From TrEMBL:
<feature type="domain" description="Bacterial bifunctional deaminase-reductase C-terminal">
    <location>
        <begin position="2"/>
        <end position="181"/>
    </location>
</feature>
<dbReference type="GO" id="GO:0009231">
    <property type="term" value="P:riboflavin biosynthetic process"/>
</dbReference>
<dbReference type="Pfam" id="PF01872">
    <property type="entry name" value="RibD_C"/>
</dbReference>
<dbReference type="GO" id="GO:0008703">
    <property type="term" value="F:5-amino-6-(5-phosphoribosylamino)uracil reductase activity"/>
</dbReference>
<dbReference type="InterPro" id="IPR002734">
    <property type="entry name" value="RibDG_C"/>
</dbReference>
<protein>
    <submittedName>
        <fullName>Deaminase reductase</fullName>
    </submittedName>
</protein>
<dbReference type="InterPro" id="IPR024072">
    <property type="entry name" value="DHFR-like_dom_sf"/>
</dbReference>
<dbReference type="InterPro" id="IPR050765">
    <property type="entry name" value="Riboflavin_Biosynth_HTPR"/>
</dbReference>
Amino acid sequence: MTVTADMAISLDGYIAGTDVAIDNPGGDGAEPLFEWIHDLASWRERQGMTGGKENRDSELMREWFDATGAVVMGRMMYDTGEEFWGDNPPFRAPVFVLTHRPRPTLVKEGGTSFTFVTDGIHSALDQAKAAAGNRNVDIAGGASTVQQYLREGLIDELQLHVVPALLGGGLRLFEGLGAGRRSLEPVRVADTPLATHLKYRFVK
Ligand SMILES: NC(=O)c1ccc[n+]([C@@H]2O[C@H](COP(=O)([O-])OP(=O)(O)OC[C@H]3O[C@@H](n4cnc5c(N)ncnc54)[C@H](OP(=O)(O)O)[C@@H]3O)[C@@H](O)[C@H]2O)c1
């Protein structure tokens, strides 16, 4: 069982723009983080659309979809994504949402469910592991959620899709992790005109 995190990030380290809100999901200035994704065939397929580009970026996106058996996310990512994902969200797997605000489980089309977890990151991860079968658990975001799992050393593999843009402000991924070195070994670098895809494994 591998616990992954897979994030689009600007060269200056931001995973969202400024002023993230329900009606401003990625925050101001975040477009470059996500625009490389929209034309990928594998992404479009998960949104119920046809066509799109079959390229290396699309392959890497498909690899993530195929490998992921359950997902953990924060309530802000959920709240900002809920309307966009609609009745058939792209995850097609059980999703565990960290929150202080309980809500009944939602079962959507295509294999996605959203279970709202109020008893902390370990509980959410345990539930996701139990649901993932022999596939990975992905800690999908946002910043606060990935930071909590990084801080506790609970992530095995980290993939960063580094987009060639400086955002200048927004939500940083690598913040509040506490002092102390964490060593990583490079697993793969895939370089395309759209993004540099860096995959690392934490050395435990
Ligand atoms: N670049 C990327 O690849 C990527 C990927 C995913 C998301 N994002 C972006 O990330 C942004 C959201 O990130 P974020 O850091 O603001 O928020 P987040 O991590 O999505 O959610 C934070 C919220 O989750 C709940 N929560 C988190 N940890 C908890 C815990 N241990 N116990 C109980 N509740 C907990 C709290 O909500 P409540 O107190 O309200 O319940 C908290 O305010 C969005 O803009 C999204 O677009 C980017």
